[in-house]
Amino acid sequence: MGAPKKVVLAYSGGLDTSIILKWLQTEYGCEVVTFTADLGQGEELEPARAKAELLGIKPENIYIEDVREEFVRDFVFPMFRANAVYEGLYLLGTSIARPLISKRLVEIAAETGADAVAHGATGKGNDQVRFELSAYALNPDIKVIAPWREWDLTSRTRLLEFAEAHQIPIAKDKRGEAPFSVDANLLHTSSEGKVLEDPAEPAPDYVYQRTVHPEDAPDTPEHIEITFEKGDAVALNGEQLSPATLLTRLNELGGKHGCGRLDLVEGRYVGMKSRGIYETPGGTLLLEAHRGIESITLDKGAAHLKDELMPRYAELIYNGYWFSPEREMLQAAIDHSQARVNGTALLKLYKGSARCVGRWSDDTLYSEQHVTFEEDAGAYDQKDAEGFIRINALRLKLLAARNRR
Amino acid sequence: MGAPKKVVLAYSGGLDTSIILKWLQTEYGCEVVTFTADLGQGEELEPARAKAELLGIKPENIYIEDVREEFVRDFVFPMFRANAVYEGLYLLGTSIARPLISKRLVEIAAETGADAVAHGATGKGNDQVRFELSAYALNPDIKVIAPWREWDLTSRTRLLEFAEAHQIPIAKDKRGEAPFSVDANLLHTSSEGKVLEDPAEPAPDYVYQRTVHPEDAPDTPEHIEITFEKGDAVALNGEQLSPATLLTRLNELGGKHGCGRLDLVEGRYVGMKSRGIYETPGGTLLLEAHRGIESITLDKGAAHLKDELMPRYAELIYNGYWFSPEREMLQAAIDHSQARVNGTALLKLYKGSARCVGRWSDDTLYSEQHVTFEEDAGAYDQKDAEGFIRINALRLKLLAARNRR
Amino acid sequence: MGAPKKVVLAYSGGLDTSIILKWLQTEYGCEVVTFTADLGQGEELEPARAKAELLGIKPENIYIEDVREEFVRDFVFPMFRANAVYEGLYLLGTSIARPLISKRLVEIAAETGADAVAHGATGKGNDQVRFELSAYALNPDIKVIAPWREWDLTSRTRLLEFAEAHQIPIAKDKRGEAPFSVDANLLHTSSEGKVLEDPAEPAPDYVYQRTVHPEDAPDTPEHIEITFEKGDAVALNGEQLSPATLLTRLNELGGKHGCGRLDLVEGRYVGMKSRGIYETPGGTLLLEAHRGIESITLDKGAAHLKDELMPRYAELIYNGYWFSPEREMLQAAIDHSQARVNGTALLKLYKGSARCVGRWSDDTLYSEQHVTFEEDAGAYDQKDAEGFIRINALRLKLLAARNRR
Amino acid sequence: MGAPKKVVLAYSGGLDTSIILKWLQTEYGCEVVTFTADLGQGEELEPARAKAELLGIKPENIYIEDVREEFVRDFVFPMFRANAVYEGLYLLGTSIARPLISKRLVEIAAETGADAVAHGATGKGNDQVRFELSAYALNPDIKVIAPWREWDLTSRTRLLEFAEAHQIPIAKDKRGEAPFSVDANLLHTSSEGKVLEDPAEPAPDYVYQRTVHPEDAPDTPEHIEITFEKGDAVALNGEQLSPATLLTRLNELGGKHGCGRLDLVEGRYVGMKSRGIYETPGGTLLLEAHRGIESITLDKGAAHLKDELMPRYAELIYNGYWFSPEREMLQAAIDHSQARVNGTALLKLYKGSARCVGRWSDDTLYSEQHVTFEEDAGAYDQKDAEGFIRINALRLKLLAARNRR
């Protein structure tokens, strides 16, 4: 791989990516294009522009974009159609944001004639894989630069020295080391490292940033209604909302009631286990509500197949294979199932828990006439069950008779 | 199928199975053996003996047994090794009890020379299937009698008339119809039917029997420690306990904190959807704790395979195939994975939620040395990640290049 | 289920379905509509018209249709996109024809105002299930009549008596019993029963009807080229052909060279095992060629996912769930994978075997530049493999270190 | 990774591994231990001893072992219990030999105090992965040296120069380049590269080494009987044989009749596609026979689960994960299913094809009584099928009714 000539950098405006920006300029002597995305991480973006300019980036090379609607509509919602959870629990908040960032990096590279993209993920984590597999899948000729795997700035001290040597402003609170590492977007906030590295130790309270402590949540439960069309949430309490707006509101509601906290140890794609604290308030509500609507609108043949495919689907997203034929195949199957997943779920939020306690739909498959303990007017002939059981038992009986021999 | 000569009846001592008992005697003129099991449903068993005697059952034909330890050790625990949930949520509390009952029915039939077994499940539900598939799988020649599918006692009025005509005592509170139908054992209580038949309507408070309302749970969280050996819980807060005792304690703890409530619509094996309220206080804690211990002791290769196999495994149990070669094959795979699933999980219980907030094990695979953000003394070479990504990307790049053509 | 008023019967014109026709008339006093389809079974259809008229069917109630193109295009080809084989070997030739017949039965019922459909499958086989599940899935209100499960014509003698009593002409060679039972369509011929009922005994030579004995096949191999577009065969030896024409030609070629014979014991959906002799000459060539083209045009991520989904997909078709949401979901995934499955496979046919010995495509993913043992001009950096292996090994190393403890 | 002090080399005695031997000595100045295994590749092993001695290896450091029985018993047979084929066709002949070699390398390292192992696989193939993952899984501290990824002997010329410079004898026929690359063991022979690199071109006849051309095979079919116990072949034509002896005989039979040739393009784990010619004469017979016995002794619940798990299992072996918890979990499931897979399969071998044409077993599940077209004496009540179908149809009917709305 020859040296890059022009690099599009995923740039947050923070100290680390500013150091990367400067390092790219000095190490490769290449032109740098910055891409700063509003994924709902809750930070101002315009300071990133000022900082990029300060570091010598040409105005036309500074891309600052609000991609929240695209993020929720084209990435978060398709994933929630699958009820995806990784290792039984994790809602993939970080994983699902990476392909979108890579997609824009590659597109901006094409627009600006850049031959490379760069990111600030380390060599130990999953994000490097997600960024890079996405980039290569979208442009097989792109170069990817991962400074954390390349440079020799391997300690906090050396990073700060590099920053000072290159006139990169250092906010006072960035001098010391953060007690843990954070990633955030509209779907979730994750916290890892440092004080969290002993998985036996409960996370300190101050780690949680987006959800109140359940103990501090309102003493009165709150009921909300989430309405779905074709598997996607479209309204909250009867009010139609855009994808990102809806998720924002769900985050507020979930956060207020202390919902969506997760403390877990996960198996990284690169082979080690890591401990993370995840807060996914809105996503937790969304998953519960989506399962609720599916429970009355999906036939069990479709529902069970979805459940069987889900772990693979979630693993693919976790591992960075959003832009892969197998993820797309699974998506095609999942999306096919959602055509009639319409209706409304009623959730009860209370001190850390979100439970679906009611659900209704014009497309319901629930038939009170069939299930009733009361007289069913011939909807169901109980005698049929005898034949059903006897035929299903036949192979087991043949087996039992054989095994006696 | 010729008429049965001697029938072993799953007998609760309640009105319905007493009517069945009498009906078997009058309809078939056959001898009846009663089997009453303590599965932890929380009812006295000795009244069943008195009632059976009153109905003319010979003392040697009355079997009353406490099977709680066997239930938890040989059925509940193996199932929890798999983290089994049906349709994403249901912990299979009713499903897992049925094979044990059938097993004892068939064994007692062999001991007493009976040629048939009988149960009190209706023709619309899953339980008939579970009872009968288990019975046939254990004895291919056994006859199974399901009175609810056969008789003409199709209304409450006719049932009561039959009872009165045959001097079956009717408790006063059984004259009217129960507002919903209940099944209970050491793992869970389920409620279905009647007032619960509209899935849009939240369940009335009085339906919940085993868990306090989260709003009424203690205002202070409680932390507990569950210790596992080879995937099975063996101790609570450091105290070694037998399987049934442990689950009983967990039920108390979970119930006290309002944990394990579930309101859902499920797809029955017989094809209709039904709405159920499930309370699984101890099981909910057990699942959370087991996942917590697995997260540090199971390699992700094993863990992900388990997650992929789980929905099928759960479906098999739900559908009544506990005694099937495919369930046993999956169990063999699951059990193989549990050899080193040892350790302790710390749970926080609070007003309806149970979260694992810490976990430790002598068999942990978590390596702080590898995952640390700090200097790792060469445990991990970040440069390796580049090759890892580039090789994994190769097929995606070839694909992208082809798709451009 | 009330008595049917008007029934659409799947009518072959043979003795058995003629008896059914008459039985429907006499048993239910209902009007009968006949549907006779040319699925490529190799029999004249017009005699069925004459016979139906003879049995009193009104001309407007006689439907005779050539559905061969629809059969191959909409049923056989979608199934072959999946490389579907049941229990490792069976190409599902009978299974795939049933949903099409049911679809037309239900459509004709709608056109003619019939309230029921009827078929001539017995109560022991899979076909009854396939016919009926398809019918119910397409019209939940349709009645289905399966005379073999209902009537008392349970011996050959009684059938013949019934035929004679109702002036149904009996061909001389139908007086005695056939030595085995046959089903045929454009995809395959199956033979079952009677002389084939001992699975230890090789099938007599005279059972095979559609393929020459390999020993009698030409002594010289023949090479053919099959061209695919989007996963479907479109040309043979460079000549564009319609689906049914193409399959017809492949049948001739395969039959001539003794290809596609199968002698197996299969597990029926209804629980018993049965032995069948299948001849699928064209389908065998098609499968081999399709796998050949996929081998160069499908990425392994897609290909392996297809392989994992296939057994389920095949089972669904075998069991009669063509018209089910889960089959459609799998089809959506499979079809998504076929967008670039274009190209030509070269097969060698010789005395019973058909092997792909060459394959090429404008959409190939095969890169001689990457795979070559020669100098590859930097297409692949072998050093990347070290990182790839080391990262993939990390979890195994952590595991090995733990297991030593 | 520091320099190795003592290395155990997988040594064939051929030119390439002799060069590696010398290179290890000169590059690292380390002591070399050679391991030469008879896996049934059909070459004399003693010349390897002489050559190793000539290259300065101490006699006690020369390990030459016949591992054929272990290979077949502990690797090939367990794999065949699963009916494993990769990408629908490949019987994994090379893949399954690698873990055994690595196991012995690691064991010999422990015996001899070596800190490293070395192999002669290139950086483009799968074998490097298989060798190294196995080694790391068995000893997490072992060093692995892969000279082809490290050295600069990147052309034939430089290799020969190195050999001459170090007095490594070069057989005359090794001066020029082989027209393709070969791997062989008791299970198969694979040929790759050079003349085979264009997948459109049929392989030249001279590539095939182990099977006669079907055109040259005997004009008379041969029938053989293979007997299985617990899923493993134990006898041929009634004669009990050890695993390796049995496979050797099957190779002779299959080879004589031209069976087991495969020409395919496969997706390598490292991401590229490669074309291979595989000859697996005995294995092809074994697979056909094993499926034949399973067809009468395995319940379809077990059989279908096996079919669904198989592609993953095969992929794991192909990718080098023999020694992984997930392969072991699958093996546990598969082995559980084989307890009653006993019986004899009759195969017909003829000019390239091997077909099972009969099978029998004391453990058969085939019940002529149930399946017969004749009177079955009440073994099966056809009326049961109606209930079976109606219950299975219920969800489809509810769905159809909903979809009409």
From TrEMBL, chains A, B, C, D:
<feature type="domain" description="Arginosuccinate synthase-like N-terminal">
    <location>
        <begin position="6"/>
        <end position="169"/>
    </location>
</feature>
<feature type="binding site">
    <location>
        <begin position="10"/>
        <end position="18"/>
    </location>
    <ligand>
        <name>ATP</name>
    </ligand>
</feature>
<feature type="binding site">
    <location>
        <position position="120"/>
    </location>
    <ligand>
        <name>ATP</name>
    </ligand>
</feature>
<protein>
    <recommendedName>
        <fullName>Argininosuccinate synthase</fullName>
        <ecNumber>6.3.4.5</ecNumber>
    </recommendedName>
</protein>
<keyword id="KW-0436">Ligase</keyword>
<keyword id="KW-0055">Arginine biosynthesis</keyword>
<feature type="binding site">
    <location>
        <position position="190"/>
    </location>
    <ligand>
        <name>L-citrulline</name>
    </ligand>
</feature>
<dbReference type="InterPro" id="IPR001518">
    <property type="entry name" value="Arginosuc_synth"/>
</dbReference>
<keyword id="KW-0067">ATP-binding</keyword>
<comment type="subunit">
    <text>Homotetramer.</text>
</comment>
<dbReference type="InterPro" id="IPR014729">
    <property type="entry name" value="Rossmann-like_a/b/a_fold"/>
</dbReference>
<feature type="binding site">
    <location>
        <position position="95"/>
    </location>
    <ligand>
        <name>L-citrulline</name>
    </ligand>
</feature>
<dbReference type="GO" id="GO:0005737">
    <property type="term" value="C:cytoplasm"/>
</dbReference>
<dbReference type="GO" id="GO:0006526">
    <property type="term" value="P:L-arginine biosynthetic process"/>
</dbReference>
<dbReference type="Pfam" id="PF00764">
    <property type="entry name" value="Arginosuc_synth"/>
</dbReference>
<feature type="binding site">
    <location>
        <position position="130"/>
    </location>
    <ligand>
        <name>L-citrulline</name>
    </ligand>
</feature>
<dbReference type="InterPro" id="IPR024074">
    <property type="entry name" value="AS_cat/multimer_dom_body"/>
</dbReference>
<dbReference type="GO" id="GO:0000053">
    <property type="term" value="P:argininosuccinate metabolic process"/>
</dbReference>
<feature type="binding site">
    <location>
        <position position="278"/>
    </location>
    <ligand>
        <name>L-citrulline</name>
    </ligand>
</feature>
<keyword id="KW-0028">Amino-acid biosynthesis</keyword>
<dbReference type="InterPro" id="IPR023434">
    <property type="entry name" value="Arginosuc_synth_type_1_subfam"/>
</dbReference>
<comment type="similarity">
    <text>Belongs to the argininosuccinate synthase family. Type 1 subfamily.</text>
</comment>
<dbReference type="InterPro" id="IPR018223">
    <property type="entry name" value="Arginosuc_synth_CS"/>
</dbReference>
<dbReference type="GO" id="GO:0004055">
    <property type="term" value="F:argininosuccinate synthase activity"/>
</dbReference>
<feature type="binding site">
    <location>
        <position position="127"/>
    </location>
    <ligand>
        <name>L-aspartate</name>
    </ligand>
</feature>
<feature type="binding site">
    <location>
        <position position="122"/>
    </location>
    <ligand>
        <name>L-aspartate</name>
    </ligand>
</feature>
<feature type="binding site">
    <location>
        <position position="181"/>
    </location>
    <ligand>
        <name>L-citrulline</name>
    </ligand>
</feature>
<feature type="domain" description="Arginosuccinate synthase C-terminal">
    <location>
        <begin position="180"/>
        <end position="398"/>
    </location>
</feature>
<feature type="binding site">
    <location>
        <position position="90"/>
    </location>
    <ligand>
        <name>L-citrulline</name>
    </ligand>
</feature>
<feature type="binding site">
    <location>
        <position position="266"/>
    </location>
    <ligand>
        <name>L-citrulline</name>
    </ligand>
</feature>
<dbReference type="InterPro" id="IPR048267">
    <property type="entry name" value="Arginosuc_syn_N"/>
</dbReference>
<feature type="binding site">
    <location>
        <position position="126"/>
    </location>
    <ligand>
        <name>L-citrulline</name>
    </ligand>
</feature>
<keyword id="KW-0963">Cytoplasm</keyword>
<comment type="pathway">
    <text>Amino-acid biosynthesis; L-arginine biosynthesis; L-arginine from L-ornithine and carbamoyl phosphate: step 2/3.</text>
</comment>
<dbReference type="GO" id="GO:0000050">
    <property type="term" value="P:urea cycle"/>
</dbReference>
<dbReference type="Pfam" id="PF20979">
    <property type="entry name" value="Arginosuc_syn_C"/>
</dbReference>
<feature type="binding site">
    <location>
        <position position="37"/>
    </location>
    <ligand>
        <name>ATP</name>
    </ligand>
</feature>
<feature type="binding site">
    <location>
        <position position="126"/>
    </location>
    <ligand>
        <name>L-aspartate</name>
    </ligand>
</feature>
<dbReference type="GO" id="GO:0005524">
    <property type="term" value="F:ATP binding"/>
</dbReference>
<dbReference type="InterPro" id="IPR048268">
    <property type="entry name" value="Arginosuc_syn_C"/>
</dbReference>
<keyword id="KW-0547">Nucleotide-binding</keyword>
